[in-house]
Amino acid sequence: MKTTCIPILFWPFFMLLLSDESKTSKTEVKCNFTEKNYSFIPEDINKNVTILDLSYNQITLNTMDTSVLQIYYLLTELYLIENNVVILHNNSFGNLSNLKILNICRNSIYVIQQGAFIGLNKLKQLYLCQNKIVQLNPNIFVPLKNLKLLNLQDNMMSYIDRPPLFHLELIILDGNPWNCSCTLLNLQNWLNTSNVTLENENITTCSYPDILKCYSIKTVPYNTDCYSTFPLPVMADLYINFQSISNSTFNSSLKNLTNSEHEPPGKSWTFLVGVVVTVLMTSLLIFIAIKCPIWYNFLLSYNHHRLEEHEEETYEDDFIENPSALSQIPDPISEDTTVTFEQLNSFAVDDDGFIEDKYIDTHELCEEN
User: Which terms under GO biological process does the entry name (predicted)?
Assistant: First the structure.
C-alpha cells in the first residue's frame, strides 16, 4: 500500500516537469537571416528569439552589435558563420547567459580579448574553426564552466597550453601548424591523462621540426631533455607568462593602429624632441665658440709674465751679438698689426748706452754711487 502511495504523491511533480518542457519546446523561436548582406545585427528581431542564424553576412560584431545582442537574452544558439568578425571584444556576449551553442567559424578572428566569453556560463559548444588565430591564452576559457566541445580547427596556432576546462569532452585541433618542441609537452600530457577526446587525431600532426612531421601531437616522442632541462611546471609557467605578455602587446599595438588618429603623441615623441633640442643647443654653442673667440683673447692676456734676472741677461747678450735681429722684424703696415720692440720686452735702450731696469730699486743705486 505504501509503495503505491509514493508514485501517487509524486505524480503532480512529474506532470509539472513535463509541462515545463513542453512549454520550452513550444516557446522555441527560430530566426534565420542568412545571406541578407547585413552589416549590423538587426534590432527589430523578435525579443523572444532563441535560435538566431546570421551566417553569410557582413557583420563585424563591433560595439554596436554587442549592445544589440544584449536584447536577445533568451538566445540558446547563435550562428555567425562566414562574416567579417576580426576581434572578439570583452563582454561581447555578456547578457547571453542561456546560450549553449556559439558558432563563429569562417571569419577572420585573430584577436580574442581576455573577457570575450564572460557571462556564457551555460555554453556547451564553442566553434572557432577556420579563423586566423595565432596565439590563444587558455585563460579566456575560464568563464566557460560547462563547455564540452571546443573546435579550433584550421587556424594558425603553433602552440596552446592546456585549457582550464574540467568538463570538456571533445577538442578539435587539426589544421594548425603545431610546433612539437618541448613547449607542447604540457598539452600532450593533458590529452593523455584527461578524459578529453582529440578528434581527428591521426591528422593532427606536427608541422615542425621536420623529423617529427609524421607524429601526432598526442603521441610525439619527447627526449629526456624536455623533462630534465626544463621541468614541466616551470616551463609551463614561463610560457604562459610569455603568451600573456605577447598577447597584450599585440592587442595594444593593434589598438594603437586602429586609434592612432585620436591618441596624443606618446613619450617617444617627447624624448625625440628633447634629443633634437640638445643637439641644436650643442651645435649653437660650438658655433659661437668658433666664430666669436673673445674668450681666447681674454685667456691669452694672462700668458705674459715678467722676465727674471737671468732671462734679461741672456736676452740682452743675444741682442748685442745679433744686431741683425731688428731687420727680421716686419715693416709696419697698420697701427693694429705694429709690434714694437718695447712692447715685446720689458726694457728699453737709453741714450747713454745703459739699460734701464725699472725693477732695480733707485735707493740701492744711490747707495752704490
Answer: positive regulation of non-canonical NF-kappaB signal transduction
- CA 240 from chain center: how many Å? 16
Answer for the pair 163, 187: CB distance below 8 angstroms, yes or no.
no
SS3 (DSSP) at 197 = strand
Instruction: Give strand ranges (E) for 224-362.
Output: 348-349, 355-356
Q: How far is CA 211 from the centre of its chain?
A: 34
Can you tell me the distance from the alpha carbon of 105 to that of 99, in angstroms, rounded to the nearest whole number?
Answer: 17
Distance between CA atoms of residues 62 and 64, nearest Å: 5
d(CA 99, CA 123): 6
Q: At what angle do helices 185-193 and 232-258 cross, to 10 degrees?
A: 110
CB atoms within 10 A of CB 112: 24
**Cell numbers at residue 292, please?**
666669436
pTM recorded for the entire structure = 0.58
- Return all residues near 132 (Cβ < 8 A) that are at least 6 apart: 108, 109, 110, 155, 156
Residue with more model confidence, 258 or 285:
285
Q: Of 181, 165, 179, 182, which is closest to residue 125 (Cα–Cα)? A: 165
